[in-house]
Amino acid sequence: MSADQRKSPTEPQRGNRPPAHGRRRILITGASSGLGAQLARIWADDGRDLALCARRLPELERLRDELLDRHPHSVVHVYQLDVSDAEATERVVERAVVDLGGLDRVVAGAGIGMGARVGSGHADVNRRVLTTNVIGTWNTAEAAIRHFWDRQDGHLVIISSMAALRGFGGAMAAYSTSKAAIATLGESLRSSLARRPITVSTIFPGNIDTAINAGNPDKKWSVPLEVGTAQLAAAIEAEPASAYVPRRPWAYVAPIMRVAPLSVVRRLVG
């Protein structure tokens, strides 16, 4: 395969296999690693056309090459993007619409998990978490919904976290706050679009083995990346208003987390 073919032509070449679900053309932010990259692998295996976005272009290009090696006739476009830049996010979504001939689903998965204790003198770190996770998701939603509104169809997926359900302290404070904010964004969009054929799903992953939780020695009920992301993809395909992933135990733990004292929540989830 030539280098030009690996970069995917402007006129997409359709894969040999139709996808199992109608959402063929999918854009993923935060696709260079973790959940985003693994979702790309799952959907490439299913014959989807992909627009993959992240700040780290070399990682995206390696992922694209991996996917095209496995599926030479797949459509995989990559775009360097910092989702905190609103104008850049608009441009990339518009470019992906042209390159893929439209978008059926947008997964707002870009996020960072590092943080610092509030008042520790590292406010800049916490601001980066909040800017990327909250403003970046907002920017992605603005661009996606504008396209979906024009075509009166589409599926926006917001990747929140179980950490959104309660206020976690220490180095988790900014992350927990950001994930709660984007969960509220998802609910607000569902309210706004209630009479429109546009679906908004908020997904709450638990502990899946990614770089974000790799350094947490107290994490409980963690599952391997491949296992957790397979369940994540299945939850997304169902297009629910919200879902906890993996369902067991998090769908059963969630009601307890919402009402239990914080001391109990800390012991419960680590």
TrEMBL record:
Residues 24-211 form the Ketoreductase domain. Keywords: Oxidoreductase. Gene3D superfamilies: NAD(P)-binding Rossmann-like Domain (3.40.50.720). InterPro entries: KR_dom, NAD(P)-bd_dom_sf, SDR_fam. Belongs to the short-chain dehydrogenases/reductases (SDR) family. NCBIfam families: PRK08251.1. This is SDR family oxidoreductase. It comes from Microlunatus elymi.
